[in-house]
Design brief:
Elements (H helix, E strand, L loop, with lengths): L1 H16 L3 H11 L14 H18 L5 H14 L9 H14 L5 H22 L3
Helix pairs in contact: 1-3, 1-6, 2-5, 3-4, 4-6, 5-6
Length: 135
């Protein structure tokens, strides 16, 4: 059910607002301005677009069968720290997405969409917390 809600919300975003890449990253940079510097070489936004698509694929897997998402999120949390993203800021991306989607859909953003996305964000934080524990 959650995967269907996530998919429906993404379809609604695409229908109502088109490509959300620019607004999602604008919100992320509002929340954490130093992260903008990590994209200085992404002059055409293609890296941001590819990253957002990978996040969508991962979120859909996490909301569904979780064949790979939990492992990928934990691995990417480590990889992003190596790129200069502070560990505690990694999950801000999910906050930025949810904030952007709420704003873009307005009244079309349902309570069910909100609940599904907040559950995903909570799962991401739990995966990160588990990964941050010493072995």
């Amino acid at each position: 059910m959650r995967a269907q809600l996530i998919e429906a919300s993404l379809e609604a975003i695409a229908h109502h607002a088109g490509d959300p890449t620019g607004p999602v990253y604008a919100r992320l940079f509002e929340l954490a301005p130093p992260l903008r510097d990590l994209f200085v070489r992404d002059t055409d936004g293609s890296v941001r677009g590819q990253m957002l698509q990978q996040v969508f694929d991962t979120v859909l897997d996490l909301a569904g069968e979780d064949r790979y998402a939990s492992v990928l999120i934990g691995t990417e949390w480590v990889n992003h720290q190596n790129l200069g993203v502070p560990g505690e800021q990694f999950s801000l991306f999910f906050t930025a997405m949810i904030d952007t989607f709420r704003a873009q859909l307005g009244a079309a953003w349902t309570a069910e969409f909100d609940t599904a996305w907040l559950e995903i964000a909570a799962r991401v934080r739990a995966i990160i917390a588990a990964r941050a524990q010493p072995a």
